[in-house]
Amino acid sequence: MSETQESSIFTKIIAREIPADVVFENERIIAITDIAPKAPVHLLVIPKTERYRNVGELAAGDPALLAEVVAVSQQLATERSGGEFRLVFNTGPSAGQTVFHVHAHVLGGSLPEGTLG
Ligand code: 5GP
Q1: Is 3 domain-assigned?
Q2: Which of 18, 57, 68, 116 could form a disulfide with 52 if both were Cys (CB 3.0 to 4.6 A apart)?
Q3: Which pTM was predicted?
Q4: Parent domain of 41
Q5: What positions does the record give for the motif labelled Histidine triad motif (predicted)?
Q6: How far apart are CA 41 and CA 92, in angstroms?
Q7: In CATH, what number is assigned to the domain containing residue 72?
Q8: Which numbered atom of ligand 1 lies nearest the CA of 88?
Q9: Distance between CA 81 and CA 25 in Å, rounded?
């Protein structure tokens, strides 16, 4: 990120400049509950670096960090939705991405069958 760019909403949450319900944190990753949940369990698992805008950039730039995002998602879903969950990475505005700091949506708990909505 260049110095003239504003930090993302998630960077502000990581810095505790704005509040969030933090459900997991280590040196590299933070996980929070989504402010507008689309499922009974809706968490966001977020690498702390804002170097990567989307999952493709993360996969290319730091595959170990992507694997850690998946492992944390699995762990949180095991605790909160019996280990069953949907993992979503929106990529680009037409796919619904609104925050350009890579994050995984962990959706769980009685999701509609056979849809991606
Ligand atoms: P995207 O649309 O980029 O895939 O996902 C961004 C997500 O961040 C949305 O589901 C939105 O509800 C969530 N979100 C946006 N601002 C905040 C916030 O200030 N706090 C929390 N907890 N979630 C947020």
Answers
A1: no
A2: 57
A3: 0.94
A4: 9-108
A5: 101-105
A6: 23
A7: 3.30.428.10
A8: 4
A9: 19
